[in-house]
Amino acid sequence: MTDSKTANSPADANQGLTHFDQGGQAHMVDVGAKQDTHRVAVASGIISMKPETLAVIRSGTAKKGDVLGIARIAAIMASKRTSDLIPLCHPLALTHVSVEFAVDEAQSCVSCTVRVETNGKTGVEMEALTAVQVGLLTIYDMSKAIDRGMVMSDIRVQEKHGGKSGSWSQA
After folding, report:
1. 3-state DSSP: the chain helix, strand, coil percent, rounded to 5?
2. For residue range 83-97, what is the model confidence (pLDDT) as tens digits?
3. What whole-number distance in Å separates Cα of residue 82 and Cα of residue 84?
4. Is residue 127 marked as binding?
5. Which of 3, 141, 147, 154 is labelled catalytic?
6. DSSP bridge partners of 41
7. Which domain of life is it from (predicted)?
8. Residue 115 CB contacts under 8 Å (≥ 6 apart), including other chains
């Protein structure tokens, strides 16, 4: 059994950042020596549905209320609770979260784009991805009485900025 001194020791620096200690056991990566930097991640996803479901969402007449408004709040709340949901994910103090929904009548879908920012030692990609998924799940939950066949897809990180690895953008 590996003790906690070994699991979070400077040996992490020799191995690179990894979720495994020298004994092969899972542990939270020690980011203590990293510098705080401004970090940004943008993630997106889509939920496709029947045209009549989209019409109800767009009109704001769903029986459960303002679907997109409630989904926006759920996404923001989820971004702030990511470390409670994803094992070994660091708890972060987020400085900004924005959630945008776009209705596409031609494709009968709603897209969700989330931008998350922090000033910290580790990135916010997981927070952005979690927010997108919970936002889309909330749309599903609030609309499933109309359409149980909705499909969530294309959930991905679009871009990230900050930290040692710099900027990255989905081509």
Report:
1. 30, 30, 40
2. 999 888 888 999 999
3. 5
4. yes
5. 141
6. 116, 160
7. Bacteria
8. 40, 41, 42, 96, 97, 98, 128
